[in-house]
Write a structure and sequence with these properties.
With 237 residues, this protein is an all-alpha fold. It folds into two domains: 96 residues, Helix-hairpin-Helix base-excision DNA repair enzymes (C-terminal) (Endonuclease Iii, domain 2, Orthogonal Bundle), CATH 1.10.1670.10; 113 residues, Hypothetical protein, domain 2 (Endonuclease III, domain 1, Orthogonal Bundle), CATH 1.10.340.30. It has twelve helices and no strands.
Length: 237
């Protein structure tokens, strides 16, 4: 199984060479370059959960206007104000509650020195982030990879869907470990492949009516091969 997964992964990495993207369309890398504290990065990535990056950018802009993304100001204005600011991101009341709670817990733990999380080893830093309200595996790994510059491979819904169709399965940890191994933990390559896979998910490997015939990963993909064979049979029937 490990060898099969590695072969699929190697095929994917090679096929992704033809995929281009605009990094400005992704909250994670933009936030990691723009903000100099982990609180702002945490809020930015939490805003991407279960919504588009476009909506997350809008919500982030509004919240930044009100709070400057300062942790004490976020806590000070409270959930209602935060919820109103991030309404465009959807599930705004639940999201606001989690953001305020996560920021408060992190502030209580580290004060103004929360960036020390990046000094911990990957496993300890990840567990600490996962202990925060509303922070799951993807959110933690995006922060660790893009802000802390630690080897990690975040798996979002696009990547999970693609990997399921490729034959890599749907296990977050298995997918993550596969690409970490293939890319030898190279942070820049991990970011690049992560963003390229999301781009493929947005353009071609959609939840319904995927564009398999145009997808650059079709040469690696069991789903695409099966679909192509099925279409061929239908035409000759």
């Amino acid at each position: 199984m490990a060898e099969i997964s590695r072969n699929i992964g190697l095929c994917v990495v090679e096929a992704l060479a033809s995929v281009d993207y605009d990094v400005r369309e992704f909250v994670g890398p933009v936030a990691s370059r723009k903000y100099s504290n982990i609180y702002a990065m945490l809020v930015a990535v939490m805003l991407t959960q279960n919504t588009s990056d476009a909506n997350a950018f809008k919500a982030l802009k509004q919240l930044e206007k009100i709070t400057g993304l300062d942790p004490r100001r976020i806590i000070g204005v409270g959930e209602e104000v935060v919820a109103k600011a991030i309404r465009v991101a959807g599930m705004y009341r639940q999201r606001a509650k989690r953001i305020v709670a996560a920021v408060k817990q992190l502030l209580e733990m580290f004060g103004d020195k929360a960036d020390r999380i990046c000094e911990l080893d990957y496993s300890d830093a990840r567990q600490l982030l996962l202990s925060l309200p509303g922070v799951g595996l993807k959110t933690a790994d995006v922060i660790l990879l893009m802000y802390c510059r630690k080897p990690a491979f975040p798996v979002d819904t696009h990547i999970k869907r693609i990997c399921g169709r490729l034959g890599l399965g749907s296990s977050y940890e298995h997918i993550s470990r596969t690409f970490l191994s293939i890319l030898d933990g190279d942070v820049e390559k991990l970011i690049d492949v992560h963003l390229k896979l999301i781009t493929v998910g947005r353009r071609y490997c959609r939840p319904s009516k995927p564009k398999c015939d145009k997808c650059p990963l079709q040469v690696c993909c069991e789903y695409a091969k099966t679909k192509t064979a099925s279409n061929s049979k239908s035409k000759t029937a």
